[in-house]
């Protein structure tokens, strides 16, 4: 007997479609960094460790305890930099490869620089530094063409030229370091001991910091301004080397025969380089504020941010350099502070930027006054860097023009 029911049909569980809320879905864990990138990062770190081990094994006779400590501490610092800034990693690999190639060409004979093709025209210290100088000037030209003609391709070429200049400059410094030991073990020293060598260092540090900000803010417009101060330094360096034969490697004066030089001078010139960068950004700010090249330059708040960050980094390193300099002075001259002209003007530079940062953070200094102050700071910094050497004498007379 077929019995039908008037009761509504109730679907079974099989008939029901179970909806899962998005928040309750099972997610498969995936690493934030692709495995290929992690592998490359790991290989880069291993390469740095192996490079440091090779340097310690091969050149330990030329190092003291502090040199070895600086080298060991540089490994994690450079590893972190390479992980966070991929272009810097490529730069480091290039510097290592070209420097080792040049050292292999030299062997133990300094005179091979006059005969070996790659040394004579490319990789000896003087050839590499000349290439650096030419590339910086060309980069300046292309940055201006790119900005004035609104040509992104010219800006991209300028950026590559700047990277190439930095590469050749660092190779020149590394090879110069090796050349100094070929002259004589008692002559060998890190090439940051005289005005010619620190000008090369200034150019490289300023350019590197600019390249970082260029990538961070995705703009080539500031290169036209920052590369101007680098090109001016190149012109001065060329004049100085021609008129004073300053490119020749000289023995260290007794006061510089200290491991303090290897950390004090680079920290000092990170300050000088970033202060110069901030001043040129201030020029761009003032021009845009006046409506000059308004549509070609980044926004005012971007320019102000670059100015602030550059001065902050520079002030931090300049403070460290000043403290290290006092410790070095106590060892070399028997006192932490002697009011030597160089020390006095370094203090003036420090007070200038300390006041700038204080006024920004506490009083809200912004806009045109901050830019004019940063630009004026370049005058103070330039006198501390060069003017003291030209017009004043003191304990730092080894840097006199």
UniProtKB/TrEMBL annotation:
<feature type="transmembrane region" description="Helical">
    <location>
        <begin position="308"/>
        <end position="330"/>
    </location>
</feature>
<feature type="transmembrane region" description="Helical">
    <location>
        <begin position="190"/>
        <end position="213"/>
    </location>
</feature>
<keyword id="KW-0472">Membrane</keyword>
<feature type="domain" description="Cytochrome c assembly protein">
    <location>
        <begin position="193"/>
        <end position="396"/>
    </location>
</feature>
<feature type="transmembrane region" description="Helical">
    <location>
        <begin position="161"/>
        <end position="178"/>
    </location>
</feature>
<keyword id="KW-0201">Cytochrome c-type biogenesis</keyword>
<feature type="transmembrane region" description="Helical">
    <location>
        <begin position="371"/>
        <end position="392"/>
    </location>
</feature>
<dbReference type="GO" id="GO:0017004">
    <property type="term" value="P:cytochrome complex assembly"/>
</dbReference>
<feature type="transmembrane region" description="Helical">
    <location>
        <begin position="220"/>
        <end position="242"/>
    </location>
</feature>
<keyword id="KW-0812">Transmembrane</keyword>
<feature type="transmembrane region" description="Helical">
    <location>
        <begin position="90"/>
        <end position="107"/>
    </location>
</feature>
<protein>
    <submittedName>
        <fullName>C-type cytochrome biogenesis protein CcsB</fullName>
    </submittedName>
</protein>
<keyword id="KW-1133">Transmembrane helix</keyword>
<dbReference type="Pfam" id="PF01578">
    <property type="entry name" value="Cytochrom_C_asm"/>
</dbReference>
<dbReference type="InterPro" id="IPR045062">
    <property type="entry name" value="Cyt_c_biogenesis_CcsA/CcmC"/>
</dbReference>
<dbReference type="GO" id="GO:0005886">
    <property type="term" value="C:plasma membrane"/>
</dbReference>
<dbReference type="GO" id="GO:0020037">
    <property type="term" value="F:heme binding"/>
</dbReference>
<feature type="transmembrane region" description="Helical">
    <location>
        <begin position="38"/>
        <end position="57"/>
    </location>
</feature>
<feature type="transmembrane region" description="Helical">
    <location>
        <begin position="63"/>
        <end position="83"/>
    </location>
</feature>
<dbReference type="InterPro" id="IPR002541">
    <property type="entry name" value="Cyt_c_assembly"/>
</dbReference>
<feature type="transmembrane region" description="Helical">
    <location>
        <begin position="342"/>
        <end position="359"/>
    </location>
</feature>
<feature type="transmembrane region" description="Helical">
    <location>
        <begin position="269"/>
        <end position="287"/>
    </location>
</feature>
<dbReference type="InterPro" id="IPR017562">
    <property type="entry name" value="Cyt_c_biogenesis_CcsA"/>
</dbReference>
<feature type="transmembrane region" description="Helical">
    <location>
        <begin position="127"/>
        <end position="149"/>
    </location>
</feature>
């Amino acid at each position: 007997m077929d019995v039908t029911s008037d009761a509504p049909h109730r679907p079974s569980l099989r008939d029901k479609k179970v909806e899962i809320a998005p928040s309750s879905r099972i997610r498969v864990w995936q690493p934030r960094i692709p495995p290929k990138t992690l592998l490359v990062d790991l290989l880069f770190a291993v390469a740095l460790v192996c490079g440091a081990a090779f340097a310690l094994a091969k050149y330990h006779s030329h190092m003291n305890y502090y040199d070895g400590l600086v080298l060991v501490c540089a490994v994690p610092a450079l590893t972190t930099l390479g992980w966070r800034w991929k272009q810097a990693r490529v730069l480091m690999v290039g510097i290592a490869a070209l420097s080792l190639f040049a050292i292999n060409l030299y062997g133990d004979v300094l005179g091979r620089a006059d005969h070996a093709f790659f040394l004579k025209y490319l990789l000896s210290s003087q050839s590499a530094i000349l290439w650096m100088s030419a590339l910086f000037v060309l980069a300046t030209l292309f940055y201006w063409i790119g900005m004035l003609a609104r040509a992104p391709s010219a800006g991209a070429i300028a950026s590559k030229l700047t990277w190439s200049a930095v590469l050749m400059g660092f190779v020149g410094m590394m090879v110069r370091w090796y050349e100094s030991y070929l002259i004589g073990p008692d002559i060998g020293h890190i090439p940051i001991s005289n005005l010619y060598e620190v000008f090369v260092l200034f150019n490289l540090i300023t350019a590197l910091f600019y390249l970082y900000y260029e990538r961070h803010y995705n703009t080539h417009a500031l290169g036209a301004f920052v590369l101007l101060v680098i090109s001016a330094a190149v012109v001065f360096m060329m004049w100085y080397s021609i008129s004073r034969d300053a490119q020749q490697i000289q023995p260290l004066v007794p006061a510089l025969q200290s491991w303090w030089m290897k950390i004090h001078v680079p920290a000092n010139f990170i300050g000088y380089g970033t202060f110069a960068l901030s001043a040129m950004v201030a020029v761009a700010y003032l021009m845009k504020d006046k409506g000059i090249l308004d549509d070609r330059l980044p926004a005012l708040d971007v320019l102000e941010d670059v100015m602030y960050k550059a001065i902050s980094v520079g002030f931090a390193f300049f403070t460290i350099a000043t403290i290290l300099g006092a410790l070095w002075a106590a060892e070399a001259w028997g006192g932490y502070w002697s009011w030597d002209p160089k020390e006095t003007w370094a203090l003036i530079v420090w007070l200038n930027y300390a006041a700038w940062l204080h006024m920004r953070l506490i009083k809200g200094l912004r806009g045109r006054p901050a830019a004019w102050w940063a630009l004026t700071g370049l005058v103070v910094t330039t006198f501390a860097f060069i003017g003291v050497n030209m017009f004043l004498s003191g304990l730092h007379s080894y840097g006199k023009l």
